[in-house]
């Protein structure tokens, strides 16, 4: 297969920039596509060529396959990288890219399709000795039979959508009397979110750890893993903080989990970068959850502890090169933590926020990495995921990485929108997090909105008051706070402005 000369990145923001930077280092030309809302975004300027592909709504731009393929043809592109989100796990898109004679920098359409269905993924992985959460191997068709299966598994159970992710189409059922109601809700949400109402049953693991394994496979059958990431701090079943390695597992579990991840990849003939997700119970029993057939948001922590550029590896694999890395050559060096900086108000149930980044000053220094796609003065669009940046710190050990993260959060200056930075600082200093004694219930158990106020010391309060005064003085027309209604409850600007 010939060397790639020009890559179109079918994405936006920080991940588009991240991919383009590696491409530039490899002397590969880049093409950015953008919606009308992203016309002034940094990834548009960074690329060698940029083309507007439609209006702000993603359905008319970043999800418009025909427009993307037209740009590829017009500009002589020979490869497409989908990033994450949008079309990254769309088997139809991968297939059409290849039908156009282009290289898709990712796995085969067949692998995406198999792993895109949780049921199909379980059936494929079932050919190997991989631990599975007790549950049904097929979609539920007979409710009465499903109730008998649930009784056999033992409540509580989960009813889960076969397609999609992000916690959508997922319902916890505590008792048999709740089954019908929660089943209806799960099917309805699955249909509205994924246009697929297929659901299945699993035993609900009540206090799980969420551990995932990064894998790389080439087109010659070689597959390796690059150790684990701990992703248990979540809100609404979505990750907020990730780290590598995990404080929760032993070297023996790491080796066994890595073997299982490689076997999952083998089960669908996988190549490219992918992530195999597991949940682990209080007794350290782990179970296969799903596979994400793309580059993960949290991939930087793996890059920092292994020294491997995952995007570079994806490009080389797509060109047909065999893996230059061998499992025995890989080792964990140090510790890395990533916090997702969202335009969300943690004190108001993590509701998204919109507005202008009146102040946007990034932290720096030894062991600090920022992956972002915004600049001071830019607006946070209402049309896309509200993530502003990924803040990553690296240290010789976990304690050093945590301390660097606290320092970096304190340096990060953002005004104009509420962000998750105060919440992330709260987590970094919480004894349950620092001790490693936490699971996916951390937010529900340990976090209350009023706790954020306890984190503000006198010096921070003085600084905040000064910044607020300057903002009011410089531009009284900007409404940078949440509007209030009736009883004074905060309302997300994201919600009030989105029409």
Q: How are the SSEs placed, and which strands pair?
A:
Blueprint: E1 6-9, H1 13-25, E2 29-35, H2 42-46, E3 49-54, H3 65-75, E4 79-81, H4 91-99, E5 103-104, H5 109-116, H6 118-125, H7 143-153, E6 157-161, E7 170-173, H8 179-194, E8 199-203, E9 209-217, E10 223-235, E11 238-244, H9 251-266, E12 272-280, E13 286-292, H10 299-306, H11 310-318, E14 335-342, E15 344-345, E16 351-352, E17 359-361, E18 368-372, E19 387-395, H12 398-411, E20 413-415, H13 421-429, H14 431-434, H15 442-446, H16 451-454, H17 458-474, E21 483-485, E22 489-491, H18 493-497
Parallel strand pairs: 1-2, 1-4, 2-3, 4-5
Antiparallel strand pairs: 6-7, 6-8, 9-10, 9-12, 10-11, 11-14, 12-13, 14-19, 15-16, 17-20, 18-19, 21-22
Helix pairs in contact: 4-5, 12-13
Q: How would you characterize the overall build of this protein?
A:
It is a single chain. This protein is α+β, with helices and mostly antiparallel strands and 499 residues long. Helices cover 34% and strands 24% of the residues. The protein has helices at 13-25, 42-46, 65-75, 91-99, 109-116, 118-125, 143-153, 179-194, 251-266, 299-306, 310-318, 398-411, 421-429, 431-434, 442-446, 451-454, 458-474, 493-497; strands spanning 6-9, 29-35, 49-54, 79-81, 103-104, 157-161, 170-173, 199-203, 209-217, 223-235, 238-244, 272-280, 286-292, 335-342, 344-345, 351-352, 359-361, 368-372, 387-395, 413-415, 483-485, 489-491. Strand 12 (272-280) and strand 13 (286-292) form a beta hairpin. The protein starts with 5 loop residues before the first strand and ends with a helix. Residues 456-466 and 468-499 have low confidence and may be disordered.
């Amino acid at each position: 297969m010939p060397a790639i000369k020009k890559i179109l990145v079918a994405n936006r923001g920080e991940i588009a920039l991240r991919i383009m930077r590696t491409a530039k280092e490899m002397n590969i030309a880049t093409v950015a596509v953008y919606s009308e809302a992203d016309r002034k975004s940094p990834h548009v300027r960074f690329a060698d060529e940029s083309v507007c592909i439609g209006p702000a709504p993603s359905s008319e731009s970043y999800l418009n396959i025909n427009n993307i393929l037209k740009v590829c043809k017009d500009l002589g592109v020979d490869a497409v990288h989908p990033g994450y989100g949008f079309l990254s796990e769309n088997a139809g898109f991968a297939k059409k890219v290849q039908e156009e004679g282009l290289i898709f920098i990712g796995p085969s359409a067949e692998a995406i399709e198999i792993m895109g269905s949780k049921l199909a993924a379980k059936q494929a992985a079932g050919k190997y000795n991989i631990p599975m959460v007790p549950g049904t191997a097929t979609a539920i068709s007979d409710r009465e039979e499903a109730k008998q299966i649930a009784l056999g598994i033992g409540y509580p159970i989960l009813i889960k959508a076969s397609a999609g992710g992000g916690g959508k189409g997922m319902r916890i059922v505590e008792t048999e009397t709740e089954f019908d109601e929660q089943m209806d809700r799960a099917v309805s949400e699955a249909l509205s979110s994924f246009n697929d109402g297929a659901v299945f049953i699993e035993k609900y693991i009540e206090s799980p750890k969420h551990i995932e394994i990064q894998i790389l496979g080439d087109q010659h059958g070689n597959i390796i893993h690059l150790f684990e990431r701990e992703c248990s701090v979540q809100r609404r079943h979505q990750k907020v903080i990730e780290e590598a390695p995990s404080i929760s597992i032993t070297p023996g579990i790491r080796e066994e989990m890595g073997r299982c991840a490689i076997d999952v990849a083998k089960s669908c003939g996988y190549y490219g970068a992918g992530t195999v997700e597991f949940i682990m119970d209080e007794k350290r029993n782990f179970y296969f959850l799903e596979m994400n057939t793309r580059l993960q948001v949290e991939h930087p922590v793996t890059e920092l502890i292994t020294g491997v550029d995952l995007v570079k590896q994806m490009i080389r694999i797509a060109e047909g090169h065999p893996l230059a890395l061998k499992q025995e050559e890989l080792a964990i060096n140090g510790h890395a933590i990533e916090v997702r900086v969202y335009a969300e108000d943690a004190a108001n149930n993590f509701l998204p926020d919109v507005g202008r980044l009146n102040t946007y000053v990034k932290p720096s220094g030894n062991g600090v990495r920022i992956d972002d796609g915004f600049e001071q003065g830019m607006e946070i669009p209402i049309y896309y995921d509200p993530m502003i940046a990924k803040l990553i710190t690296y240290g010789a050990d976990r304690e050093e990485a945590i301390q660097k993260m606290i320092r970096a959060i304190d340096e990060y200056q953002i005004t104009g929108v509420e962000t998750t930075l105060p919440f992330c600082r709260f987590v970094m200093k919480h004894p349950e997090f620092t001790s490693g004694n936490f699971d996916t219930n951390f937010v529900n158990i340990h976090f209350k909105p009023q706790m954020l106020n306890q984190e503000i010391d006198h010096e921070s309060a003085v600084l905040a008051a000064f910044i607020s005064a300057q903002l009011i003085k410089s531009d009284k027309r900007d409404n940078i706070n949440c509007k209030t209604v009736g009883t004074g409850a905060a309302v997300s600007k994201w919600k009030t402005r989105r029409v």
